[in-house]
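Duplicate of earlier report; Noncanonical pyrimidine nucleotidase, YjjG family input re-posted below.
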Amino acid sequence: MSDFKNIEHIFFDLDHTLWDFDRNSKLTYAGIFKEENLDIDIEKFVQIYIPLNLKFWKMYRHNEISKEELRFQRLKTAFDSYGIEVDKVQIDHIADQYILKLPEHNHLFEGCLELLDGLKDRYQIHLITNGFDEVQEYKITNAGLKKYFAYMLTAETAGVKKPDLKIFEQAMKDTGATPFNSLMVGDSLEADVEGALAAGMQAVWFDPDKIDANYNGYRVERLSQIQELLS
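Output:
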């Protein structure tokens, strides 16, 4: 498509875009709850947990809570909503185990590897993620993604989180990219798309859940559609 004819660098978000966070998270919690002898219906739990996790991540992006508060409160609030009493010591332990075990699950969104295989010889592809340093590297390594990305910038390394303009500017500076030749792909309309557009980049919103939002820019429901946009 002519709108993308100048693109040389493609920056991807990781969680919820390439790496299937919700599926991997569900598997991780199921294993931990079994080890902790917690009688929890995992299907019911994740229905409660997923929107709460998004809520607390948004608060974290806006610097309203710390990383430690995010990790604790998303679990505490989910357990309270589920109706099970779990004490602080056990919640802290589960939160630590979750971070440790999450990268052991490596499910990717359908079409992820095919997309990256199709892009790697035509573009320089990179990662910009708000995820935590200690797990993102393990995720891309364990999921077989590391070979596609020579560069990954995390919010902790950058010192700011998407959608802050500075993280996009830092990523472009580090990779020799410019707003003119850069495209951002991510699942968060606020953090990925609006942040990238504010930095002067092009953006594609990955929206597999077909969110009802007033957005007239480029939106795809499947990763395979990104290749189509670029062809």
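The first helix runs from residue 21 to 35.

Merging into the original ticket.
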